[in-house]
Amino acid sequence: MRRRVAAPAQSDRGAIAATVPWITAAVAFVILYWRPLVGTVGLWWTDPDAGHGLLLVPAAVFLAWRSGLDPDARGQAGAGAAVLIAAVVLRSLSALAAELFTMRLSAVLALCGILIYARGFGQLRRWWLPVALIVLSMPLPELLTDSLALPLQFRASRMGAALLNWRHVPAGVEGNVIVLGRRLADGTLQPATQLFVTEACSGLRSLAALLALGFLIGGIWLRTSWGRALLVIAAIPIAVVLNGVRVFLTGFAVFWIDESLGRGLMHYTEGWGMFVAALIVLSGVGWLLGRIEPARPARDRLVMARGGT
Q: Are residues 123 and 170 in the same domain?
């Protein structure tokens, strides 16, 4: 009696044939997005304004792994292919315009298209937080940063000068320059020292990082969309106010102690300290929002216990 042994070979060929499209897609993705992705990683490593990407991307990968795959999700080939085509078109147009931010976003869109093709929109909804963190890790375009930095510099200068005057330190504002000196009998200010609020001190760096952390904290701690939205919105005034306090503390130290405290290691240490303070305040707001949110339904508690978001 003869036995057929061709079935295992056929199953192996079927498995290989099933993996070929995914290997092809992975190779095509690397070829298409290698240069913008390598450039993005380089910016994360060298540019302080984009350094939060080194935290957000590993956090996104961990959260996606922790959340796992949706057992009810099914691939949607048509929708996934449409998203992939849109990503490739966007990649081509951004390359013609030499616009790096749009090129990086097209890479995220292509990953979403592959995810939809394989697992459907249900899996994309399950991984909304990791996708949002990856988008927030992308360095902002220079056009946007240039338009935001100067108004933030002016606001920080005005706030710092107001706090200095409140604490009886004579200070005036000329654009993004705080003039420290002494008040004469007629009320005019006799300049003695100038404190420049540069672009690095505008607070844009801490604002971008706090917005990203607001998404992260809200996605992990909070249960409702309105609670998460309020936390992200709260990150804006927290960053602006604490940056103004930072300018005030720098001016106070320069006026009463030594001008060298307005630059160098002490200046950067103060910036890190204020960012930690901003993160603590933001976490406190998140805790308060969590206390006033309604209780999580039993079904959602079960999903969280299994590692979902």
A: no
